[in-house]
Amino acid sequence: MFFQRSIFTEGVRACMPVLLGVVPFGVITGVAMVASGIPPLAAMLMSIFVFAGASMVASAQLLASHAPALLVVLTAAIINLRFMMYSASLRLHFAHAPLRWRLLIGYLTADNVYGLMLQRFAGTADEHGKLSYFLGAGIPVWLAWQAAVFAGVAIGAGVPAAWRLEFAAPLAFIAMSVPLLRDRAMAAAALAAGIGVVAAHALPLKLSVLLAAVVGIGTGMVFEVKDK
Amino acid sequence: MNLWYTIAGMAGVTYLLRASFLLLPSGVETPPPLKRALRYVPAAVLTAIWAPELALQDGVLALSPHNERLLAGAVAIAVAWRFRLTFATIVSGLLALHFFDWLL
After folding, report:
1. Which of A141, B2, B3, B21 has its CA at a distance of 20 to 30 angstroms from the CA of residue B74?
2. Per-residue DSSP letters for B25-76?
3. B7, B13, B70: which to substitute to probe chain A, counting the most A Cβ within 10 Å?
4. pTM for the whole thing?
């Protein structure tokens, strides 16, 4: 009833180009965690249970500077706030799916998988294919991510510093955020957040990210009203 | 010990954020103002993550042509804007970083 093999396969195919971005980011995340002193087993457990690269890189930096657990968790919450937006949006597609599937969808939601879902089903109403497509895209992304983090953890300090691979982490975020800037309000939100975070960079414990998020969201909403 | 609390806390918070709206009963509507605000969260938060990595050098604002991360980032932004491909963005940004590093 729910599972449609052809649409699952379509999801698998659609996520293949995305893996080209997921894999290097996963490797970097693994390397960053081990480099900041997280033991390999803990790094893998974090990857499986948290499954959110941006917050893992940030937490690795904070843990290396001996920040208290509560503050690391708070920072992760701010960085991962965007998943709340994804869940609000995915709810439009999956509100009537059985709870056990919604629990799984929540776990598998990643930036790229959400993006693929949005591209494929924006404005279409065919209920049943959506879950198959989501799983078709989400499962390979999950597997590739975990394998890539494992590789990164295994390589660890083996990557020569001269390669400057650490720069790939901000590059991965550029790749995720820049294509979102399709209208003036969205661009204004990003620009305000960018200026805000740099202006507030001296604040302790990445509070600058929280402040920038608030400033960015507010600016976006103001421009949205102006543009109407 | 601190590490395990951190991992458990991050896992719990992240899962709750991810599942949040998916777990609400199907009759409940998302308040429109919250929906509008959430629309801007990804662009704002993702930008706030990478902007300091480009604009700051050792914690000091460095908007100068001597900042190779800023220059390489600009190349990556252009590639991301034009092609919308993650892999191309990462590769072009890393190559640009090494190029500007060598040039400067």
Report:
1. A141
2. -TTPPPPHHHHHHHHTHHHHHHHHHHHHHHHEETTEE--STT-HHHHHHHHH
3. B7
4. 0.81
